[in-house]
Every structure is written in structure tokens, then in C-alpha cells.
Design brief:
421 residues, TIM Barrel, 44% helix, 10% strand, binds flavin mononucleotide
């Protein structure tokens, strides 16, 4: 576990600068985006940076933080600053975690593995995505004692869901994060313009292709794909990609068509818009891990979640990728905090772009703050080292914002220090 020391971090960067060495990950957020865009393919950039519809929610996720102003307090002796928090029985070095992000191999070939190693080096929790590019077991072994969680998309196969829960338990996960807002894919305009969805190339389905239940499902006859298209160059590329991504030998996969079958099966079972609150006890029955619901935006849903005995609420609108025009996460947060009344931890993400944003979310009642796109960009720019640098920078930024606002620790970050402007 790496304790934040903002002044050391600052000193290192300035001293490095004095000797002519520039840091790999920029500090100005717009520069991180610009560099990542240069590095990534047009498809990867569209998939990662893009959101639903007119992308209004994505924009307001960021801009609505400005409705809240920090009113720093003075003369409070902030010589010793402590960012640590308690979360699900763990002591974390800072109130950050990395949100689940699928198809990370589009950002970097080491994908989830690089992110897991970065988190393991610093003790920052990582939520493994259901759409990861690397099976959870491989990531978990690199993380040592660092807490990890598994994010579940509840597919049409309950048997697959149970298998994933069991694997998460065996991988030492501390909780199951059930994402509720993506029972179907949102209307992602940038991806639609390119006609590009990574999963169809076999990208981001490693939790499925490594799963014994999913592999057994592949033995069942599949529904015939709809449409009757003539083979094209792109179709062949898609076929090759799906064979490359499937575990095992490429030629064998290509001959057997297993990669294509896996993609087809995935598309048949992924969407499950018919789940309801009354399905939740099924999950409860099949795991002893705490259950956290991701994508809660309405206070009544938060209350309902508590009625159903869930262990944590995760305020998120998926970075604006699902419902365009939806309330920004930071606008939704105070209502949820009021509804939850301290009965469960509250995770938060969507639009967090630095230490001050994290500070505001904490002040409004979040227990821990999720980083999303920014770590994807850092991964694209610098792999594991890039993610580590970003985390160290944000920890330092939060630590300084906290200290300069007169707070010695996270418990002292309170809503009374915010002004609604
Ligand atoms: C490229 C991309 C892929 C994502 N994949 C998942 C996923 O597999 N599961 C999930 O629950 N959320 C997923 N999310 C949503 C993130 O967990 C998080 O809610 C979001 O990134 C927060 O918004 P921000 O990145 O704009 O801060 C994804 C987000 C992005 C940008």
C-alpha cells in the first residue's frame, strides 16, 4: 500500500524537470486526452471517449462539478494529512478505486493486467469488468492483498452468472458490483458512425471465453445468424480477430470457427432487459460476497436497494454512455446520500477529472470515488507505469486540495465546506 505524499511527488516532478526529464503522463487533463487520442486507433478513441446520443450527460458529468465551490478553511494545522479510508473491511491508502472498463486491449495490449499491476503496486482497489480483456483470475494473482471486486453484467444465462460469482469468490474479490444500467447497450453515436463494436471482433469477452459454463454453452447448437451477406474483406478480418482472441491455437480456432461461435453466443445472451428487483435474491443466494448495485441515480431506487438488503450503492450514469440527457452523477449524489442515511457505503463515478472533483464528491457523501476514462487514457499512453503515475498524481492532487481546504483527513471533508454556486 502506497501512502500519498503530495509534497514528495511535487518535489520529484520539479527536480526531474530541473534535470530535463519530463513526466510521461501530463498533469493538465486536456493534455492527457489529447495524447491518448494521438495514440489510440479511431475505433478505440470513439469507443472509449464516446457516449450516448448527443453526449449531453457526458458533458454535464464534468461541468456540473462546477456548481459546487469549495470554501477553504484556514489555520487548522494540516501538517499531517491522511487520505486513508476504511472500505469493506480494508484500509485503503486513498478514497479512490478504478471503475470497471471493458475491452481495455483497445487502449493497450496488456490491458486489464497492466491496470491490475498498477493497482496492486499502490493498494488502490480495482473492479474487474465483466467485459474484460483478461480473465479475472490472471489479474487477481498480480494484486496481492490489494482489494478487487468483480462487476457483473447479468446475462440471459443464470448459470453463467453463478459461475462468474464463484470465480470472483475464488479470485479473492471483496464484493460483486452488479451493473444495472446496461441491460442493453445505449445509443452510442460515435460507434454507430463507425459501425464498430469491439465484442464482435472477440475483444472484451475474455471473462466469457475463460468460463466453463460459457464454453459448455458453445457446444449447444446456435441460432443461425440473421441476414445473408456476401463475404467481404472486413468480414474475414472479423473472423480472424475472433479466432485470435479465443484461447488456444489460432489455426485450430479458425478451422473450428470457435471464435466466431463465441462472439455469436455472447451477442445472444448479453442483453437482459427483463431483470427486476425481485431477481436480486437469486444473486444473494449464490454468493456470500457483499453486493453493490452500480448505476443507481434515483433516491427511491437507493431506498429500494437497501430494502432488498444490498451492501453498497454505486452512483453512476456509466459516464453518460447509456441514457443521454440523464442527470449527472454529481447532481444525483446528494439525493442518494440523503436516501441512504449512512446505512451503506456509497461509491461514485462519472466525470471525475482530478483531485478537486473527488474532494467535492467526498464532501457530498461519497465513501469512495471511481476513476474511469482517465485511467484508460493513461493506460493507452504509458501502460502500467502510466496508470500508476496518474494514480499518484491524483492522490497528490486530492491530498493538497484537502489540506489547503483545512481538512486533515477524509472524515473532515464535509458538505459544510462546499457552497452551491
Ligand atoms: C470504454 C468504457 C468501457 C466501460 N465498460 C464498463 C463495463 O464493462 N462495466 C461497467 O459497469 N461499466 C463500464 N464503463 C463505465 C465505467 O465503469 C464508469 O462508470 C465510467 O467510465 C465513469 O465515467 P467517466 O469515465 O466519464 O468518469 C465503461 C466506461 C468506458 C468509458
Amino acid at each position: 500500500m502506497k501512502k500519498s505524499n503530495a509534497l514528495d511527488r511535487q518535489r520529484t516532478v520539479y527536480l526531474d524537470g530541473a534535470f530535463g526529464y519530463r513526466q510521461a503522463i501530463p498533469f493538465v487533463y486536456a493534455e492527457i486526452e489529447r495524447l491518448a487520442r494521438q495514440k489510440l486507433s479511431p475505433e478505440a478513441w470513439a469507443y472509449i471517449a464516446g457516449s450516448a446520443g448527443l453526449e449531453q450527460t457526458a458533458r454535464s458529468n464534468e461541468s456540473d462539478f462546477q456548481h459546487w465551490k469549495i470554501v477553504p478553511r484556514m489555520l487548522r494545522n494540516v501538517e499531517e494529512r491522511d487520505l486513508s479510508i476504511q472500505f469493506l473491511g480494508h484500509t485503503l491508502p486513498a478514497p479512490f478505486f478504478l471503475a470497471p472498463i471493458g475491452a481495455l486491449e483497445m487502449a493497450h495490449p496488456e490491458a486489464d493486467l497492466a491496470v491490475a499491476r498498477a493497482c496492486g503496486a499502490l493498494g488502490i482497489p480495482y473492479i474487474f469488468s465483466n467485459q474484460a480483456s483478461v480473465p479475472m483470475e490472471e489479474c487477481a494473482v498480480t494484486m496481492g492483498e490489494t482489494p478487487r471486486m468483480f462487476q457483473l453484467y447479468w446475462s440471459r444465462s443464470d448459470e453463467l452468472a453463478v459461475s462468474l460469482l464463484q470465480r470472483a469468490e475464488a479470485s479473492g474479490c471483496s464484493a460483486i458490483v452488479v451493473t444495472l444500467d446496461t441491460t442493453m447497450l445505449g445509443w452510442r453515436t460515435r460507434d454507430l458512425d463507425l459501425g464498430y463494436l469491439p465484442f464482435l471482433k472477440g475483444i472484451g469477452i475474455a471473462q466469457y471465453t475463460s468460463d466453463p459454463v460459457f464454453r459448455r454453452l458453445l457446444e449447444e447448437p446456435l441460432e443461425a445468424p440473421s441476414g445473408n451477406r456476401r463475404p467481404s474483406f472486413d468480414a474475414i478480418r472479423t473472423l480472424i480477430s475472433s479466432a485470435q482472441k479465443y484461447p488456444g491455437g489460432f489455426w485450430r480456432n479458425l478451422r473450428s470457427g470457435i471464435g466466431r461461435k463465441a462472439v455469436q453466443k455472447f451477442t445472444q445472451i448479453y442483453s437482459r432487459p427483463n431483470i427486476t428487483w425481485t431477481d436480486l435474491p437469486f444473486l444473494r443466494k449464490h454468493t456470500r460476497l457483499p453486493i453493490i448495485l452500480k448505476g443507481v441515480l434515483h433516491p427511491d431506487d437507493a431506498k429500494k436497494a437497501l430494502d432488498y438488503g444490498v451492501d453498497g450503492i454505486y452512483v453512476s450514469n456509466h459516464g453518460g454512455r447509456q441514457v443521454d440527457g440523464a442527470i449527472s452523477s454529481i447532481e444525483a449524489l446528494p439525493g442518494i446520500v440523503e436516501a441512504v442515511r449512512g446505512k451503506a457505503p456509497i461509491l461514485f463515478d462519472s466525470g471525475v477529472r482530478g483531485g478537486a472533483d473527488a474532494f467535492k464528491a467526498l464532501a457530498l457523501g461519497a465513501t469512495a470515488v471511481g476513476i474511469g476514462r482517465p485511467y484508460c487514457y493513461a493506460l493507452g499512453i504509458g501502460g502500467q507505469a502510466g496508470v500508476e503515475a496518474l494514480l499518484l498524481n491524483w492522490m497528490a492532487d486530492l491530498e493538497l486540495t484537502m489540506g489547503l481546504s483545512g481538512c486533515k483527513n477524509i472524515a473532515e471533508i464535509h458538505s459544510t465546506i462546499l457552497h452551491r454556486g
